[in-house]
Design goal:
28% helix; globular; archaeoglobus fulgidus dsm 4304 fold; alpha+beta; 275 residues; DNA-binding; 6 helices
DNA sequence: GCGACAG
DNA sequence: ATCTTGTCGC
């Protein structure tokens, strides 16, 4: 029988992961490196990517990794890749990248082989960038490994460096009047680790944007906001929707069990039309 | 014992 | 992450 639970990591594994994070962290660039980032309208930006993993209920190891590429500024899906994967690392706050990044790197490699012309100019990642225990979240990790500009977008605040969901924080959230309003997340260290963003008018709960790689916080926030039709920026939202739908249609056994039927365990498609 | 815990 | 349907509003 296949393992349905990931093994708890040994202390030695954690130390190794921390060393790896520290090593890769030296390569992070927290500044704009692309021309389009410097333009107030992002002229020259045509493709924005989004990545996400959805998990099969009741099974800690089977998931669907998805990478989508959307046109900008239209936000139409140009490319979609869904791949069933078996994760080996457990979820641990602070070490999310070791659970998800390997499959996202593979997805990026498949894109490069199949449709190099659709390579995204920036990638929105589900999770944090430098807003992290050791300043190296999943968005930084993926950014360094792919050398793509990456932005971290978290749905919940990771409470590091003194940041907390205290009354002060709640008050700042209440003060966000409309879509586009933000407030900085300044840690005890004095450093601004990210921005809380009211992503659109109808949502009261903000999203947390932080630098992943090859971008500054200001342009990262500006780009994320320009990608929001709903609370979650469209590239990540599409990756999420498609990975969940992929699981639903591929493992729809009545009792929630995993029944790998005879079918493709991967799809990728390119949407014709806009070029 | 209590709180924290990106996905 | 996932557990989960209908319901209120535009």
């Amino acid at each position: 029988m296949a393992r349905r639970e990931t093994e708890p990591p040994e202390q030695e594994t954690l130390r190794r992961w921390e060393r790896e994070q520290a090593q890769l962290k030296a390569n992070v660039i927290e500044e704009d490196t692309e021309e389009w980032q410097k333009d107030s309208t992002f002229a020259g930006l045509e493709r924005v990517g989004g990545v996400d993993l959805s998990y099969v209920k009741g099974n800690d190891t089977v998931a669907c990794a998805s990478l989508v590429v959307l046109s900008y500024p239209e936000l139409e899906v140009l490319y979609e890749d869904c791949q069933m994967v078996t994760v080996s690392a457990p979820y641990l706050a602070g070490y999310l990248a070791f659970r998800e990044v390997p499959f996202l790197v593979e997805a990026a490699q498949r894109l490069q082989e199949r449709e190099p012309g659709l390579r995204p100019q920036v990638l929105l990642v589900d999770g944090n960038g430098v807003l992290h225990h050791r300043g190296f979240g999943v968005a930084c990790h993926l950014g360094v490994l792919t050398d793509l500009p990456c932005i971290g977008v978290a749905k919940n605040l990771l409470q590091v460096d003194g940041l907390a969901k205290d009354e002060q924080h709640k008050g700042q959230i209440r003060d966000l009047q409309m879509g586009g309003d933000v407030f900085p997340l300044r840690g005890t260290s004095g450093r601004v680790l990210g921005m809380a963003l009211r992503s659109y008018n109808k949502s009261t709960k903000p999203i947390y944007v932080s630098v992943g790689h090859r971008t500054c916080l200001e342009s990262a926030v500006r780009l994320v906001q320009s990608c929001c039709r709903y609370r979650i920026p469209e590239p990540i939202r599409q990756a999420d929707i498609r990975s969940r739908e992929y699981i639903r249609t591929h493992l729809s056994s009545p009792l929630g069990g995993t029944s790998p039927g005879p079918g493709r365990d991967n799809i990728f498609s390119t949407v014709p039309g806009s070029s």
